[in-house]
Amino acid sequence: MFYSLSVDEDPKPTFLRDQGQCITCHATSRTEGVPGHLMRSVFADRTGQPHYGSGTYSTTQSSPFEKRWGGWYVTGKHGDLRHMGNLISQKNDRLQDLDCEVGANLDSLNNLVSTDPYLQPTSDIVPLLVLAHQLEMHNLLTRGNFEARSATHYDGVMNRALERDEDYVSDSTTRRVSSIGDKILRCLLFADEVPLTSPVQGISTYEEDFEALGIRDQEGRSLRDFDLESRMFKYPCSYLIYSAAFDDLPVMMKKYVSENLQTILKGDPSQDEFKNLSVTDRKNIYKILQETKPGLLEASPSEELSGTK
User: Fold this and answer.
1) What percent of the chain has pLDDT over 70?
2) What is the DSSP string of the chain?
3) What is the pTM (predicted TM-score) of this model?
4) Is there a domain that residue 170 lies in?
5) Which terminus of the chain faces fewer neighbouring Cβ atoms within 10 Å, N or C?
6) Which domain holds residue 129?
């Protein structure tokens, strides 16, 4: 459910429940077809309003850098990489019309905006990278939850109507689970992440604070450890695998994801679509998950979906 809160000062602020306006954007193909989060890049004018005639871009971990963060402030170092952040555009501008050098590699926002009213004087590039992954991952987990529950309900109705065993799982349900389960796995393992062609460095304490929250194995490794040289994380498996959203996936969906995750991590990079994961990456991630999320990788990959509601 979405709620809005007026930005005007009010001695008694009131949250207003959305009557359908929010989900015009926040429940579309951009959010995996379920009510969810949306990170957008726009061509912004001097008031912060988008020039919608110039188009917008959805930002995910697979988005090219040059199409990210239009309408956002961005601080931090990113070498030769360029983005749309910190820029004012004119009506009818297109991507090729923007002078992205102006907004690149900023240590300070002092020449752009007064940061005095805000909690931080920065808009760090590292949490912006993390945010894009986190929103995409949560939307996929929500969709996975919805698909598995919907499919299970449909099977229950049809099983009673056709006098089948109550635990019978239809081919349709298996396909629905595998379809969204494969998307979850690709996002979970950063299969579509755009590589960093220059090192990225924030100018706040975010990196240190974020890593400090990591669950670590006996060798001190965590899925929250950053790389920021050629990719976002040193061990490319999402830290959201520890989240309530992942843990609360219906058994059927969670079983599909965990069993296929195990297969991938034990597999040969030349034999599957996860070319971003080297043999060493797979071994490291497998070991970290074994020690920090017991039980996740113990199921046999050969087990069937049947009877796993």
Assistant:
1) 96
2) --EE--SS--SS---EE-SSSTHHHHSSGGGTTSS----EEE-B-TTS-B-GGG-EEE--TTS-GGGS-TTS--BSB-TT---STT----TT--GGG--TTTTSS-S--TTT---TTSS-S--BHHHHHHHHHHHHHHHHHHHHHHHHHHHHHHHHHHHHHTT--TT---HHHHHHHHHHHHHHHHHHTTTTPPPPSS--B-SSSHHHHHHHT----TTS--TT-B--SSSSBSS-S-GGGGSHHHHTS-HHHHHHHHHHHHHHHTS-GGGSS-TT--HHHHHHHHHHHHHHSTTTT-S-TT--STT--
3) 0.91
4) yes
5) N
6) 125-292
